[in-house]
Amino acid sequence: MATSVERKPSSPALAAVPLWIDGAPAASQTTRFGDVMNPSTGEVARLVPFAAGADVDRAVAAAAAALPAWRGTAAVRRARVLTRFRELVERDQKKLAAVISQEHGKVFLDAMGEVQRGIEVVEFACGAPHLVKGAYSDTVGRGVDAYSRLEPVGVCAGITPFNFPAMVPMWMFPVALACGNTFVLKPSEKDPSASVVLAELLEEAGVPDGVFNVVHGDSEAVDAILRHPGVQAVSFVGSTPVAKHVYATAAAAGKRVQALGGAKNHAVVLPDADLAFTAEALVGAAYGSAGERCMAISAVVAVGPSADPLVATLAALARALKVGPSDAEGMDMGPLVTQAHRDRVAAYIDAGVAEGADLVVDGRGLTVPRFERGFFLGPALFDRVSPDMAIYQDEIFGPVLVVLRVDTLDQAIDLVNRNPYGNGAAIFTGSGGAARRFEEQVEAGMVGINVPIPVPVAFYSFGGWKQSLFGDLHVYGPEGIAFYTRTKAVTSRWPKDDAGSSGFVMPTLG
Ligand code: NAD
Predict the structure, then answer these.
(1) Of the N and C termini of the chain, which has fewer Cβ atoms inside 10 Å?
(2) What's residue 8's pLDDT?
(3) pLDDT score of 499
(4) Per-residue confidence (pLDDT) for residue 9, from 0 to 100
(5) Which residue, judged by its Cα, is nearest atom 11 of ligand 1?
(6) Atom 22 (ligand 1): residue with closest C-alpha?
(7) Whole-structure pTM value
(8) 250 within ligand 1 shell (Cβ under 6 A)
(9) Please, what are the domains in the chain?
(10) DSSP string covering 384-448
């Protein structure tokens, strides 16, 4: 979690990432700063201001001032601005990916993929005129018509995690803006620079000043947003304890909230699965982005005789992965985001060994020549893990894959469903019947069938169940439109001689 202690810049010579308020970079009024690291080198790259309440006030005031004109702009014009933004993100995709890769530590091609998934949501949002159409019913009574209007909610806020510094904000603000809302983003303080690049591109695309604002910071900035009377809706993505806090605090303040939390995503492997295909898919899903993905596969449930050959193949593939600096060619995995997180993940590997699981591949001893101060950890694979072990129960959020063994598909589904998280779940099998049973019975918001990371395309919606989501609506897609609009139902009559008169009894149809 973010630190909340009083902090001074570790090096006054380093530049601080600006806030973005009312269409321009802005200095924070804070005296507290954090270090933004380059996880590959272990060095401080720049500073990030931990915004104070006064910064949040300025950002919300700018968003509120911009709201009347933006919500009054024709949806087709808002869509044109977003279309231009989409072109600019594509133009600067490499620049954005380089910024992400440097501060997060994911390899460059993975960062390019992250931006691409964000672009897809912008493409969805470009359909705004169609998406915010209401319904119309002619003649619901004599001379009476009924219709609905989808109106913007107002000033919306987004609070986002470190692991997708461009994509997760892009799950939110393109849809919010398309619907006529204005927006305040509080990105992760660990990799804040991508959000400022996005703000610059929105400005260049023609988004009016104040429609999109960025404040950086930790829990102080977040809590100021959650309690701010000028904010009408909050979208959060991050860990489960913070998601619960955000949901409870913002809902108590009367706001609309969607708070997406952590995950422990399972892949069930049946004996009839294609072994080579499955192992290849699982290794990418477990260790890609060093396991720092909310949809990473972190638990494999091997059914019956699938276990021995699967573990042997996974181990061989994991040992062959190339781990190194995020900007080096040909790397499969970069470092973890901070030293503290790297050490926390390594401590889980220690704990797994102490709990009696079989450590088949050990990532702890890895050093990367010339990058000895980087936050690297190699892939780790545990076999014969039991559900009571901490390495199974907790979200580790690192390159650690655990294998549990069961005898039947029913036992596998039961195991998945007993886990408190319900983000994604996947099955690998050659049997349509088994896949259908899994799809129907598994308690998760997103299901993959021979697809390890079933992140929905932009015209569906993304979200988990149970401890992976607090709130009712998933992000982007149709549920994103529902979240960022309020429905107004209108009943209309234009009195004429033959329309009858209003009475004192309950009006009925006809
Ligand atoms: P985090 O919960 O530590 O931080 C998320 C955001 O909350 C950041 O902006 C941070 O500044 C803020 N924050 C942190 N502590 C806070 C506190 N005490 N009070 C108020 N605000 C606080 O998460 P993270 O480490 O940045 O990201 C990793 C987590 O996010 C993992 O648990 C991962 O599963 C989850 N995640 C979930 C999804 C999803 O779609 N469900 C997607 C991406 C990441």
Answers:
(1) C
(2) 60
(3) 52
(4) 60
(5) 218
(6) 219
(7) 0.96
(8) no
(9) 4-11+19-261+468-489 (3.40.605.10), 265-449 (3.40.309.10)
(10) S--TTSHHHHS---SSEEEEEEESSHHHHHHHHHHSSEESEEEEE-S-HHHHHHHHHH---SEEE
